[in-house]
Design goal:
Layout lengths: L7 H23 L1 H31 L7 E4 L5 E5 L2 E2 L3 H7 L6 E7 L4 E7 L13 E5 L9 E5 L3
Antiparallel strand pairs: 1-2, 2-3, 4-5, 5-6, 6-7
């Protein structure tokens, strides 16, 4: 009579192969938290781009999109400061434009004439320069023919 089933060697080989696959695949799943945090920053960047686009369209209608310093009226009924038709890079102005939750903080770098606004995650170190990880930053336009820049640094 012939026995049916697996031999001990076959079972050991299958277990070894599964162990190797688990060792190779596990690091991919472990690092998903950094990718998830980066994805939330992509959403913040998209919100910034959308809000700035709406402000620029208001500026076009008003006809002040080529002025270095001007204002437009937004939905809260108050004036919003703009530079060449786009929002200025300061925290109070952007808090009126986009609604980010308590997982994010704002920081402004720059001079009185040109600023950079940084939005970064609470669970990341405070940014010290443009290469700091886990942040999105907004650079004001430098002339009427160039839009602002939006840069995103991935989380580690």
């Amino acid at each position: 009579m012939k026995a049916k089933g697996f031999t001990l060697i076959e079972l050991v080989v299958v277990i070894v192969i599964l162990g190797i696959l688990a060792a190779v695949a596990a690091p991919k799943f472990i690092n998903l938290s950094a990718e998830a945090r980066t994805s939330t920053l992509h959403a913040v960047k998209a919100s910034m781009q959308g809000a700035a686009g709406l402000i620029y369209s208001k500026s076009l209608v008003k006809g002040n999109h080529k002025e270095i310093n001007s204002t437009v009226t937004i939905s809260d009924g108050n004036e919003l400061r703009i530079r060449y038709g786009y929002p200025r890079a300061n925290e109070p102005e952007w808090k009126r434009l986009i609604d980010v939750d308590e997982n994010f903080k704002y920081k402004t770098f720059g001079t009185s004439s040109l600023n950079v606004l940084v939005i970064y995650r609470n669970d990341s170190p405070e940014p010290t320069n443009a290469g700091s990880p886990c942040m999105v930053y907004y650079l004001e336009p430098t002339n009427p023919n160039t839009p602002p820049r939006y840069e995103l640094n991935d989380c580690e």
